[in-house]
Guanylate kinase
Amino acid sequence: MLIVLLGPTGSGKSTIEKKIGQSGIHRLRSHTTRLRKPGESEDAYYFVKKEEFKKVDLVESVLYKNSFFGLSREEVEIAETKDCVVTLDWNGAQQIKHRIPFAVTIFIDCPMYQLEKRLPIEIDSEKRKKIMEQVVLDSKCAANCDYIVRNYDGQLDEACAQILEICRQSKKSD
Ligand SMILES: Nc1ncnc2c1ncn2[C@@H]1O[C@H](COP(=O)(O)OP(=O)(O)OP(=O)(O)O)[C@@H](O)[C@H]1O
Ligand SMILES: Nc1nc2c(ncn2[C@@H]2O[C@H](COP(=O)(O)O)[C@@H](O)[C@H]2O)c(=O)[nH]1
């Protein structure tokens, strides 16, 4: 079973991945050529050089902000026997939907004003404006996802419970 999370920055995708991980949902690890961000955990991705990335057997890949991201066949195969979650952009999610019939896409929804409040305080107004413009673009894919789950402020437990329920129902209908 493979759950693919999508949603704008700050909607809570990594927080949800961690929380549903406590219920036994395994997080798949993507490869990327981007550098590790300060404070980012070492296992957030397989951080690799472009030459190495090109050699990986990938099920899907995208070029995003000058860096490559992709999910390897080896990672996807884990989802054949285990309940798994991965966060992808819309382009990658479409590729996965074509190739992995049991993948379920879930858009994580949050109101704009809450997303803006969740942005780190040090981000200046110019950058905030750009990020929020991208939020509008990223939100357009919601209607094409299999499910939309609200992760409004204070509703993390409810959001995770809904995702676990979707996982249960999807396995039943397989
Ligand atoms: N239900 C919620 N209520 C309040 N705060 C939340 C909730 N869910 C997540 N947050 C907070 O919102 C912030 C952004 O969450 P997170 O990093 O999980 O988002 P994301 O979608 O993974 O973002 P990005 O795409 O930028 O990596 C974090 O500070 C997190 O603690
Ligand atoms: N198509 C894919 N998109 C991916 C993958 N791993 C992450 N992502 C998406 O890339 C951007 C940037 O991520 P960040 O860690 O730099 O914030 C974000 O939209 C992720 O959802 C992947 O394997 N394939």
